[in-house]
Amino acid sequence: MSSLSGFLLVLLGFGFLIFIHELGHFLAAKWAGIRADGFAIGMGPCVASYRRGVGFCFGSADARVVRKHGRRPIEMTDSERESSGLGETEYSLRALPLGGYVRMLGQEDGNPGATSEDARSFGKAPIFRRGVVILAGITANLALAIVLFLIAFLVGVRFPAPAVGFVQPESSAARAEPLPAPGTSAELGLQPGDRIVSIDGDPVATFIDVRVAAAMAKPGKPLDLVIERAGQQIAYTATPEKDPATGLLSLGVTPSRSLALTDVPVSREVVVRALARISPKLAEAGVGPGARLVSIDGDAVANYAEAVAVTSEKLASHNAAALAMEFEVPSSGLSDATLGNAPKRVTVPITPEPNLELIASEPRPKKQNDEPTNPDFVPAMDAGIAGFVPLARVDGVVPESLNATTLREGDIFLRVGSTYGPRTSELMRAFRAAPNATLPALLWRDGAEIAVEVRTDAKGRVGVYLGPATELARLARPIETSYDAEGTATDTAAKSIQTMPLATVLSIDGAPVANFMELRAKIGEIAHAATEGASREIVVGLRDPSPEATSMDVRTTLHAAELARIRELGANFPIPEVLFDPEWTVLSANGDPIKAIAMGFRQTVVMVEQVFLTIDRVSRGSVGVDQLQGPVGILHTGTQVASEGFMFMLFFLALISVNLAVVNLLPIPIADGGLFLFLLYEKFRGRPPSIAFQNAAAMAGIALVAGLFLLTFYNDLSRLFG
């Protein structure tokens, strides 16, 4: 309800889809000569209605007819009704916008025994005409979807481009294997900036196609990807794995980001705070939500992947010196294009922080007998250096978080449960292992320790964004042994020291250290000065976390392989990609109506296939039932979609229209598909199923639909308030 106008727009759109579905049944009934006594939008109590001879009224017009004539219109013959001056159909609006219906003489979904011997009743119409009436609602929704897609494609709809942004370490995308091809060679794994051209031979137009293809894949079956990199097309194979955060199969990639700082209303404050942490100079220059990075040290950049590449190239020549970053800043609150103003350009010097290592503290389980590995396994990965790891800091609190009043941005975790100095991966696992629980925690806040209780939701989520607390020299639990992608174990420098959690680093080789980034810088200097292929002994000054705060100097060794990895780290682009909008692509027919019709028809067919595929994947278990949405969830999602623009809203309604058609086509007794099956039975057996069977089937259908409604309603509420 944060956007009331968007909510109302979606509610009206959802009602319109139901109206079109029922209108299909209604017009077909009129064509078939079947008497249609009622046409209702919504379910439940009647709010308002109209019937010729009664007029508009609050409540049911039929109630007034009963008071005047002693019978409902449906109980009268056509001649009796006409002689009373009453129209054939009551048009009504019901209290609950969750459905609708057409009431035909001799046909009631929940009461198969309500037949009629009247010549205009449903049961007296030929089977072909009854089949047309039953399928007309489905046909109307599919036709509407084509029309909505057509309109959207004529104007153009914006989607995230099918380009790779971040590749999750150890994900299936990071381990994707290139397929041999003449004249091509490629490294293991997808890379930022790769553009996905096709998946299993199907063309990919948006990043949503990438996500859907992964989510709908058969568990354990690899996908064949064709990607475009540096103007060359390369084939890869990757097996989607379950993402614990979503419960869906995923490749482990995020969409490529543009260089426009996101200006979505709910994210503006987060962007402003994050930029202030990076450099106060950004705010002083007016850089904020809506600003766009255009160049780095004079080199133009088009997207986040290019910015990262240019930054790495620049830093190779002047070792983490300040980079001149040029931004386009909107000159007013209104669109510069609308006002005819050119956005002003400002240049801000920003010094990137050196990269930390991503260290795996456990190996990925190896396959046994070619069986897929545990899809729920997520290797513990933490950012650090030589096995030293910073504490975890709260970088943001989700507004709907259960801990919105408990945790604050900047809080640093010193303890959770009985674990002191938890690494970020340990903290996340501790939360996931305790769903719907309250865990004691110790925080570092405003220079002092504070005890709190942290709540988790049903999925073990806390509702915060975590980052490394590099502003402190205090350490999390060290990683004593690291593992590479092949599972090879290597002892780290931190193992030799055997530091205890929450110890503070005072110096490296006698040079004082004030925070974790200075620790990283000192070790980086040592790595660059070391002889290639040789190890290097260092002296680490430590203060333990005991009340006595004992200080000591401890010797340890940075091994040659460890030094080589550190030398390759360099520094990275200083603004996190999550602060930028996705890189967009526009699906458009470029004003060609014939092309738009073709695109609309194809998109409708694709969506029909995906709905049936979703049902199959739910039955297989690769898509959990907790992913299903009901009316509340659809309205909530639609409210968010409405903020993306009217064309995207039309596209969303087209998707829902297809879903509505397919769900009604399912062979559920009270759905259109179930009723059509009864007609087929009647056609081939010469008689309809027995009333007893139809009653039993109707009760089973009602129970099934009610169960699905309760399940999806629970899922919707869990997402909204869980």
Descriptors:
722 residues, 5-stranded antiparallel sheet, 36% helix, single chain, elongated, alpha+beta, 5 domains, 4-stranded antiparallel sheet
Task: Explain what the structure shows.
- The structure is a single chain.
- This protein has 18 helices and 34 strands.
- With 722 residues, it is an alpha+beta fold.
- The protein has 5 domains: 12-35 and 105-156 and 590-722, no CATH class; 38-102, no CATH class; 160-256 and 583-587, Pdz3 Domain (Roll), CATH 2.30.42; 258-353 and 576-582, Pdz3 Domain, CATH 2.30.42; 377-563, Roll (Pdz3 Domain), CATH 2.30.42.
- The strands form 12 sheets. The protein has a 5-stranded antiparallel β-sheet, with helices on one face. A 4-stranded antiparallel β-sheet has the order 16-15-17-18, with helices on one face. Strands 23-22-24-25 form a 4-stranded antiparallel β-sheet, covered by helices on one side.
- A hairpin with a 7-residue loop joins strand 31 and strand 32.
- The relative contact order is 0.12.
- Residues 333-339 have low confidence and may be disordered.
**What general form does the structure show?**
elongated
Largest sheet: 5 strands, antiparallel
| Strand composition percent | 15-25%
Give the tally of β-strands: 34
* Tally of alpha and pi helices: 18
In a few lines, what is going on in this structure?
By secondary structure, the chain is α+β, with helices and mostly antiparallel strands.
Topology, element by element:
Blueprint: H1 4-32, E1 36-51, E2 55-58, H2 61-69, H3 78-83, E3 90-104, H4 127-155, E4 157-160, E5 164-167, E6 177-178, E7 195-199, E8 202-203, H5 207-215, E9 223-229, E10 232-238, E11 241-242, E12 249-250, E13 253-255, E14 257-261, H6 268-278, H7 280-284, E15 292-296, E16 299-300, H8 304-318, E17 323-329, H9 336-339, E18 344-350, E19 357-360, E20 381-384, E21 392-397, E22 412-416, E23 419-420, H10 424-432, E24 438-445, E25 448-455, E26 464-468, E27 481-483, E28 489-491, H11 493-497, E29 504-508, E30 511-512, H12 516-529, E31 536-543, E32 551-558, H13 560-567, E33 580-582, E34 584-587, H14 593-620, H15 631-642, H16 646-665, H17 672-685, H18 691-721
Helix pairs in contact: 1-4, 1-15, 1-16, 4-14, 4-16, 4-17, 12-13, 14-16, 15-16, 15-18
